[in-house]
Amino acid sequence: MQGVLLCALTLFVYAAGLVSYRWIPKLRLASYSFTATGLALIPVCGLAIYYLMWPLSGALLWLLVSLVGTAAVLGALALMKARVMIYLAVAFVVSDVLAVSKTMQVGLIWYFVSLLLLATALALIQRFAPAQLPVQLTRGINDSARVFVPVTMFASMMIGTRLHPTSSSTSWPSSTARHA
């Protein structure tokens, strides 16, 4: 019951931000805060549901919560077109990629490969479709790429050097054969 109440509160705060942005121009700055607070509470709702009532895999719940968060942030981004929303969108999309990797139970190296593929896709979208993207979106992708790509590369190199070369978490054939 507490998890449901927290989710209802989160939905209320998120919706209050969107409604106030759309209908009350004087409250636009507060609207960003309400919407961002609602978005930030989505992972907290996931944790509450996991600990209070979720009977299935935690990876599956992570994926579901991450997809809900991605849909919510994309809705807010479509309405508000604010740079801060693109940072949240990138965070939720990264969470989606990691959650899919966890749900599929692939090796650790595939987390990094999928993150690098995501960074490449974002860069290609920005490079070949800049006219279709709002300026805030382009700037947000640019800003997040300055942090996202180097951190991912550094983490993959640091973790990759600590794993044994024949472990199933780094070897593609053994990680796919295990789950075939």
Q: How would you describe this protein?
A:
By secondary structure, the chain is mainly alpha-helical. Helix content is 82%, strand content 0%. The protein is built from seven helices and no strands. It has helices at 2-23, 28-52, 58-80, 83-104, 108-128, 135-162, 172-178. The radius of gyration is 19 Å and the shape is flat. The chain starts with a helix and ends with a helix. Mean pLDDT is 82; it is low at 167-180.
Provide a short characterization of the protein structure.
With 180 residues, this protein is mostly helical. It is built from seven helices and no strands. 23% of the residues are buried.
- Overall, the morphology is flat
SSE pattern: HHHHHHH
Query: Sheet with the most strands?
Result: none
The count of β-strands is: 0
Give the rounded overall mean pLDDT. Answer: 82
In which range does the helix fraction lie? Answer: over 70%
Compute the gyration radius: what is it? 19 Å
The N- to C-terminal Cα distance equals 39 Å
* Uncertain ranges: 167-180
Q: Provide a count of the helices.
A: 7
Strand content: under 5%
Structural class: mainly alpha
